[in-house]
Amino acid sequence: MSIAPNPYATPKAVVADSGAGSPAEAVRQEHIAHEASIKSAGTLFMLGGVLASFAALSVLVSGAAGAMESLGVLAIGVMLAFLSASSVVVGWGIRMLRAWARTPAIVLAAIGLLGFPIGTLINAYILWLLASRKGRMVLSTEYAAIVEVTPHVRYRTSIVVWIALGLIVLSLVAAIVMAVWH
Fold first, then answer.
1. What is the number of alpha carbons within 13 Å of residue 101 lying toward its C-beta?
2. Does residue 37 register a pLDDT over 80?
3. Residue 149 has what pLDDT?
4. Which of 4, 22, 27, 85 has the highest CB neighbour count under 10 A?
C-alpha cells in the first residue's frame, strides 16, 4: 500500500525569485516616473493648444470683421493659430515619446516662460523634464525600443494623487454649480 502525496505539503523543488528581469526592464523601471511626467507635459501642451485655438479663432473672426484696418490683429490671429497647432502636434509627439518632439517642445516651453507667474513655473518644470538626463533618455530612440519590449511595465499613480484630483474636480464642480444657481 502506497501513501498518497500530501497536496498541502511545501514544494520539494527549488523555487527561486526571478530577480529584476531583463536589463531593458530595469532601465524602464528606473525611468518610468519621469516618463509619466513627460507624458503629462504632452497632455498639457495638447490642452494648451486646443485652448489657444479658441483664442486664435476669436482673434481671426474679430480681425476679419474689421477688414483691412486691423491687419495687425489678423497677424496675431495667424500667429496664435500656428502656435496652437504646433502645441497640439508637439504634445502628441511628447505623449507618444517621439524623439523629434523634444526640441520643439523645449522651444514652446521656453516661449511659455513668458506667462508669469503660473506659466513660468509650469514651463520651467517642463524644461527641466525635457532637458534632464532622464528626459533625454526617455525621448530617445533607444528608450522607444525599450518601451517596445517592456509593455507590461506601467506607472502606478499614488492613491494620494487620486484623492487630490478628486477633491480638485469636486471643488470645480461645486464652484460651477454655485455660480450657475446663485
1. 22
2. yes
3. 93
4. 27
